[in-house]
Amino acid sequence: MSEKIDLLKLRLAYAQAGNDADPYNILTPYGQQPLYNGIPSVSESGQLNNLNLKPEKSSTAEIGAEIALFKGRLGLDVTGYSTNSKNQILSLPTPASSGYNSQVINAGEISNKGIEIELNAIPVRLNNGFTWNIMINYARNISKVVSLSPGVDRIVQLAPGEDASIQAVVGQRMGALYGPGFVRVPNGPLKGMPIIGTNGRAQVTPTSMYLGNINPDWTAGITNRFSYKGIYLEFLFDMNHGGVMVSRFINKATGAGQLAETAGARLKHAPSDVYNLDYYRDGGVLQPDASYARNLQIFDGSYSKGLIGTGPRDFYKRYYDHNSEQQLVDRSFVKLREAKIGYNLPKRIYANLPIQNIYISLVGRNLALFTKNNQFDPETGASTGSGLVGGFENLSLPTTRSFGANLSVNF
């Protein structure tokens, strides 16, 4: 092996693991109820449990390679994996006429495939002690629904939003987001534009449509560390590319005229006219000959001339209400996750003590965010009784920056 290669390692692994059900999913229990005319009473659970429930089983195959070069100056670790999970334990909604609202079943197969790459390098290492270390990691994971229960092609997993839901659909990635969206012009020069109804509002689909996936296409992180004679400066950037989410805040704040984006059209008019004029959405209006004509007739940002208009409140609020497509937000971002400056105290200070080293540092977290969405952090989630749910924002509190000081003593 070449002297430039310090380490070369190949990995191959296969494993199977089981996952048991939560407690009280086998037998359907009865719960004690208040006395009925002085007589003790019980009622059966609304969930039909499963006496024949099987544990989930996951099979994982992994292959990887690791190489280190140039006396530790460059290192690369690549891992690919594939996991198949069968007998998923799911709670499936049932018709109310059955006497239950859900039933516990073993269903389907989920395929989970991905790749992880980690690169470590020391681009600069000088004789005076200055060193620049960089670490880059990249991950891409695709989780796909292979099958569900016989006769079932989709399951609504979560629906914490007004209309949108996360569904597991056979043939699609996990995390598929569904909800109502625009009814669009089917053909002709205006193909794809929203259809404007006789009330001046954009028409919305009566059923849910596929809106995208809440999960990122890939994630990455970059850490840079500069050190010199015991002093070090470190930056960690996180990146998330792809994925969408539904925002209730944008819906409500736009309808109330609280966002700067709603001021554009209003500022084009005299204050006395703002609430007395009709506004016109861009889109297609159905004509008697079944063709479509463009609704908006002026493009100076005033939305003041067109075929069918509506008042200012409907112009904004009704464009977002119960229209999950219009509430969509791109979840891509770059974030300065952490910045740290520290100092490694010289050993002569504690040479007579049983201490190996002492570090002091100042640290800041969530210091900067770069994203297309100007209203909130795309990492936020909707709070539910079972915790935070990604893919939904429900009037969430802003993400906070934090600052602190650390003292680390190793014995």
Question: How would you summarize this macromolecular structure in one to three sentences?
Answer:
This protein has 411 residues and is mostly beta strands.
Structure description:
Helices cover about 5% and strands about 50% of the residues. It is mostly beta strands and about 400 residues long. It has a domain at about 1-85 and about 110-140. The strands form 6 sheets. Strands 1, 4, 5, 6, 7, 8, 13, 14, 19, 20 and 24 form an 11-stranded mixed β-sheet that branches. It has a 4-stranded antiparallel β-sheet with strand order 9-10-11-12, with no helix packed on it. A hairpin with a 4-residue loop joins strand 5 (about 55-70) and strand 6. Helix 1 packs antiparallel against helix 3.
Distance between the termini: 39 Å
Shape: globular
Major sheet summary line: 11 strands, mixed
Radius of gyration (CA) equals: 29 Å
Q: What is the chain-wise order of helices and strands?
A: EEEEEEEEEEEEEEEHHEEHEEEEEEE
- The average pLDDT value, as a whole number, equals 89
Helix amount, in percent? under 10%
Beta percentage is over 45%
Q: Given the helix and strand composition, which structural class is it?
A: mainly beta
- Compute the number of strand runs: 24
Uncertain runs with pLDDT below 50, 5 residues or more? none
Count of runs of 4 or more consecutive helical residues: 3
